[in-house]
Amino acid sequence: QVVLQESGPGLVKPSETLTLNCSVSGVSIASGGHYWSWIRQQPGQRPEWIGYIYYTGATGYKPSLMGRVSMSVDTSTNQFSLRLTSVTATDTAVYFCAGALGATGRFDPWGQGTLVTVSS
Amino acid sequence: DIVMTQSPDSLAVSLGERATINCKSSQSILTRSKNKNYLSWYQQKSGHPPRLLISWASTRESGVPDRFSGGGSGTEFTLTIGSLQAEDVAIYFCQQYYSTPYTFGQGTKVEIK
User: Fold this and answer.
1) Closest Cα of chain B to A81: distance in Å?
2) Mind listing the pLDDT tens digit for each residue in B20-48?
3) From CA B10, how far away is CA B8, in angstroms rounded?
4) With an 8 Å Cβ cutoff, is B95 touching chain A?
5) With CB atoms counted within 10 Å of each terminal CB, which end of chain B scores lower, N or C?
């Protein structure tokens, strides 16, 4: 059973950088197959896909976030990460990590999510 | 971006009755070469992440009760809950994975009448 768990600060100041990690258990990221995504959801809103990363380091990002977003993968710790720079209050959301198998956007499983608030 | 639009925004159905949710995409999400629709349905309960119920428009995921079914092709899709149970109260989202950026519908809230 593949299980994902997000970690990172719950509060980030405006203009600073949001960094989150996702720990994967139950499968080795290095085995390939899965694409690993970050998805966020503002309260009462639809989920918003941020981007994905493959174990090779190949990435795909939402165009409107390009320039602020980057992702990385660490196969030695079986984790992948999200970095979002120059955050504003509109980046406040629950951030989920998710795996996709069979198709890069078919999200299953998901982590439980972590709330990140952007505020001074 | 492909825009996903669901209807209705909410519906209230009696226990044991059928619930139907519609989803339209702004362009076709059918890959003709593979004859596959790149559409998923998710269930999200309060305080929890979305749960994948159906992928490829009509393939029910392992462990999903058979009262959930998906249909449609091209640009119009449906999720049907054949006999609503109390535990089905949730928000349901459709999502296309035909092309990036992957996009979700605005959600349909299902309640008990």
Assistant:
1) 19
2) 999 999 999 999 888 999 999 999 999 99
3) 5
4) yes
5) C
